[in-house]
Amino acid sequence: HSAIELEDVAKDYLSHGEVVQAVKGVTLDIAEGEFFSLLGPSGCGKTTTMRMIAGFEAPSKGLVRLRGQDVTNVPPNKRDVNMVFQSYALFPHMSVWDNVAFGLKQRKTPQEEIRRRVGEMLEIVALAGREKRRPREMSGGQQQRVALARALVNRPRALLLDEPLGALDLKLRQAMQIELKRIQREVGITFVYVTHDQNEALTMSDRIAVMNDGLVEQLGGPREIYERPATAFVAGFIGTSNLLTGAATGGALKIGGGRVMVPGRDGDVTVTVRPEKITIGTDEPEPGMSAVRGTVAEVAYLGTYNSYAVSLADGAEITVFQQNAHDATATAERGDSVWLSWQERHSY
Ligand code: ADP
Ligand code: MG
């Protein structure tokens, strides 16, 4: 059985006499042991979807199944899933140890087993030796690991994490992303992870559901979603992309004093190209390449790469990223007339 299945799940809220369709019909199938992310902008329905998996909200329609069992009307405490929130919700007056042991004590787990399981879990989240600390004596990242240990010590079949790293600064967040992925591999349970941060989702996930306005726009692995965005929304939301539109004839879109290869497509087309797939230069590219002419409008030095904004004759603007070699100077400067080229397989 799948760990978690949503079948056409929707949620309407009544807010000041008006119906808000928070989730409009989501179907998902999450495998046992998978690191699965719900990714999308604020307000697209991620948290609501998560709360329906956990049982904190009842769907307006559709079914929720855990390991093949219909739990649509089963309360949260009977679902064998645990949820970790952005606000860690630790007990401030309790030590790290007592915070993690809390759930086991409540369920009258034998002392010896509590000692063993809490000890193991603190080891896994790299907090062994910090048992006596209080939450306020710890950094944000450490507190988040305590919250994680507290959720995992109950050995839920699935862990739901709603923007758990949102309160941390960038450096710590990146470190915790790697840490979380390691922990998930180590404990081997299903993680469902909510984030609005595309890098976070790409870094950690086995699969990602990109959500927009209450619906899943695309479901796939990180590479698939990045390289083959299914919709203009996904292309725009994940990474930077260039959208070129126009009328294609004879398998090419004629723009910017050049051509974009679109074999087999005629009529109105929209083509997406990632900035890092484009080469910038002064020589005319070989036939068979997609190639357009333009003028460099801006150059930005961004450390590992340069970003160029290039204006085409017909007004379109294309962004190009070019990796910096160790002794690099910019290949083109503002005002230069340049060719942009890329292989046909890099536009879609
Ligand atoms: P996300 O987590 O992706 O930011 P949410 O699931 O929290 O999105 O919210 C989706 C939509 O539903 C938003 O428009 C939000 O305002 C609305 N919403 C969420 N919870 C409630 C609620 N309890 N009552 C009314 N509207 C809500
Ligand atoms: Mg949310």
UniProtKB/TrEMBL annotation:
Keywords: ATP-binding, Cell membrane, Membrane, Nucleotide-binding, Translocase, Transport. InterPro entries: AAA+_ATPase, ABC_SmlMolc_Importer, ABC_transporter-like_ATP-bd, ABC_transporter-like_CS, Mo/tungstate-bd_C_term_dom, P-loop_NTPase, PotA-like, PotA_ATP-bd. Its EC number is 7.6.2.11. It comes from the Bacteria. GO terms for cellular component: ATP-binding cassette (ABC) transporter complex. It catalyses: ATP + H2O + polyamine-[polyamine-binding protein]Side 1 = ADP + phosphate + polyamineSide 2 + [polyamine-binding protein]Side 1. GO terms for molecular function: ABC-type putrescine transporter activity; ATP binding; ATP hydrolysis activity. The keyword Acetylation does not apply. Belongs to the ABC transporter superfamily. Spermidine/putrescine importer (TC 3.A.1.11.1) family. This is Spermidine/putrescine import ATP-binding protein PotA. It comes from Nonomuraea cypriaca.
